[in-house]
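Researcher: Please generate the 3D structure of the following complex. Treat every line as part of one assembly.
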Amino acid sequence: GAVVSQHPSRVICKSGTSVKIECRSLDFQATTMFWYRQFPKQSLMLMATSNEGSKATYEQGVEKDKFLINHASLTLSTLTVTSAHPEDSSFYICSAKRALGQGNTEAFFGQGTRLTVV
Amino acid sequence: QKEVEQDPGPLSVPEGAIVSLNCTYSNSAFQYFMWYRQYSRKGPELLMYTYSSGNKEDGRFTAQVDKSSKYISLFIRDSQPSDSATYLCAMSWMDSSYKLIFGSGTRLLVRP
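Model: Done. Output below.
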């Protein structure tokens, strides 16, 4: 299957600093990528949809100035958590949409990034 | 009411048992139905993908969709300890956005 690589897998940062997370589709072009957040023992909550070459679409309640998303190429989307606080500590996961032909698409997920803000 | 409801478990079964995992949903506009497996601290892995009502089989896994009841199931035959993970159902509309709405996930433990 297609590979989506997310980096870093784990990061610890100090409160008030910014952290950038990268999501790359390694063997296909992804015009659309998604960013999710997952708290312990809870499901994935969609934060935003990232479209190559345009502004991201944020879900209700997600601060776009705090979670900056850039999708500058067909294989790379980045999520920057600005001025991170301990409540931003979570598991962040990206996914990339791939067209499979015949009208079918599939979303492939990265391995996730564990962010801990201290 | 959540759009997608899923029992969080945990569900503990002996090795070799048949496992039944279920989700219900409220939005009749959902057209695509998926099951993902997620190991601890890893990203979800797609197991099954269905579009229409009925059954779809892939090895030890069978996905079942009943659109009239807004109910989907995943059956795992001959369960193995390596199947121990969290299973997430996900749904999407029939549009180009491909936004996925996830259930809360069911933790499965298969005991040797």
